[in-house]
Write a structure and sequence with these properties.
43% of the residues lie in helices and 13% in strands. By secondary structure, the protein is of the alpha/beta class.
């Protein structure tokens, strides 16, 4: 089987590389010439554990290739995947121009029955727009060629995408014909042989499943952050509360960790797009809107704690930051809380020195030399007045407290991810503030 995947960003590259690993002939297409030239040499544009080795291995095997030109590949492929971006417009709706441009190219080039798979995260009804776009191009050519449009949303977690793809909880596929079902069944046969569930459904339901899943996970995060903020006011410990409710089998423990808000390429964009879809049908998604509101507020929670500690005046203070990516095991800083925090710190007159294992170059593209970039975690806290934990990288979990005592000008830690043990931190001689568990901090 030969497939083409249009869009070599996070979703497209992981999807293409993993399908190649399974023995499928894959060509990944992107309009970014520099990116494609690097990919041909086995150089990945993103940081994702395990991806580099798999990428190089399948290029060498001849199973994975790259191109900037979709047109000649259309009729060589059984399946065309659209994995291009759907960035939010100013009103929060998903921008579909890249998806529809791929559909136009396919409609202008196709000569045989093929399956067009929408892998990009798109609002309900997009597959219908894709179908209409392809059909319009065929009509211009006065051709009658059958084709299928399939919805096959991705459920990849950054930092664990390879495992998520190769060992999925479920594979959701929206089809409109038995032919498309048969083609997609062949494509995903390696997964059904390993008893991974493949769920076939209608196309609108598959489109909705992606948004509903991300909105539910975002809801759990914002819910727990709301509870954490109330715990701070009441003197309760949110870590205890989380264990208490997470042990209920009806609730479970996943995505109940309090922090400083979600970020990344999926949750913020998808929550906004779902709210906008509801508005288009005159329906207000009140819970989802609250999820969005809580998350935006939560991104400044750590800054507010810092501001309160220093009595509202941060001018001239030096602040160290550990972690810049929106989550560990990725260099992705899209919608990352770190960006909001740094912006607030700079406006308040602070000097900022930050460290992240992989995301510093991406942050440099935004803030340039307005902040300092450290060589390691301890370089980031030399002579600082406070340390902010923003991303819960594993290497931050067991700090050298004695060295920190010597390096820091003032001994106070603001932990936005609740990764430290309060008693251990206090015993080491630090003041400690976290999210939702600030009883007896001094």
């Amino acid at each position: 089987m030969r497939i083409t995947i249009v869009g070599s960003g996070y979703v497209g590259l992981v999807t293409g590389t993993c399908f190649a690993e399974l023995g499928i002939d894959v060509t990944c297409v992107d309009i970014d010439i520099a990116k494609i030239e690097k990919l041909k040499k086995g150089i990945s544009p993103i940081y994702e554990p395990g991806l580099d080795d798999m990428l190089k291995r399948n290029i060498e095997r001849g199973k994975l290739s790259f191109s900037t030109d979709l047109t000649p590949l259309v009729n060589e492929s059984e399946i065309i995947f659209s994995a291009v971006g759907t960035p939010p417009d100013e009103d929060g709706s998903a921008d579909l121009k890249y998806v529809l441009n791929v559909a136009k190219t396919v409609g202008r080039s196709m000569k045989k029955h093929l399956v067009f798979v929408v892998k990009s995260t798109v609002p309900v009804g997009t597959s219908k727009k894709v179908r209409n776009t392809i059909q319009e191009e065929l009509d211009k050519r006065e051709l009658k060629i059958n084709f299928d449009v399939v919805s096959n949303p991705e459920f990849l977690k950054e930092g664990a995408a390879i495992d998520d793809f190769m060992k999925p909880d479920r594979i959701v596929i929206g089809v409109e014909s038995e032919f498309a079902k048969g083609v997609m069944s062949r494509l995903y046969r390696p997964f059904t042989l390993n008893n991974h569930p493949v769920l076939f459904m209608d196309v609108p339901s598959a489109e909705m499943t992606k948004y509903a899943a991300n909105a539910m996970l975002a809801t759990r995060i914002s819910f727990m952050n709301d509870i954490a903020n109330l715990c701070d006011l009441l003197g309760a410990n949110v870590n205890m509360v989380r264990r208490g409710i997470g042990s209920d089998s009806r609730i479970g423990s996943k995505f109940l960790y309090p922090g400083i808000g979600y970020g990344g390429s999926c949750f913020p964009k998808d929550v906004k797009a779902l709210i906008k879809t509801g508005e288009e049908y005159n329906y207000k998604l009140r819970i989802i809107q609250s999820v969005e509101d809580v998350n935006e507020d939560q991104k400044v929670a750590l800054f507010k704690k810092l501001l309160d500690y220093f009595d509202g005046n941060l001018k001239g203070l030096s602040v160290g930051i550990w972690g810049l990516s929106f989550k560990p095991q990725t260099d992705d800083i899209r919608e990352a809380p770190s960006l909001v925090i740094i912006e607030r710190l700079l406006k308040a007159g602070c000097k900022v020195k930050a460290y992240d294992p992989v995301a510093m170059e991406n942050v440099r593209q935004i803030f340039g030399d307005s902040i300092e970039y450290a060589n390691d975690p301890y370089d980031a806290i030399t002579n600082v007045d406070a340390l902010l934990i923003v991303t819960e990288w594993i290497e931050f979990r067991f700090p050298k407290y004695k060295l920190m005592q010597k390096l820091m000008a003032k001994h106070v830690i603001f932990d936005g991810r609740n990764i430290f043990d309060r008693n251990e931190v206090k015993k080491a001689g630090f003041e400690y503030y976290c999210i939702g568990a600030n009883v007896n901090s001094h």
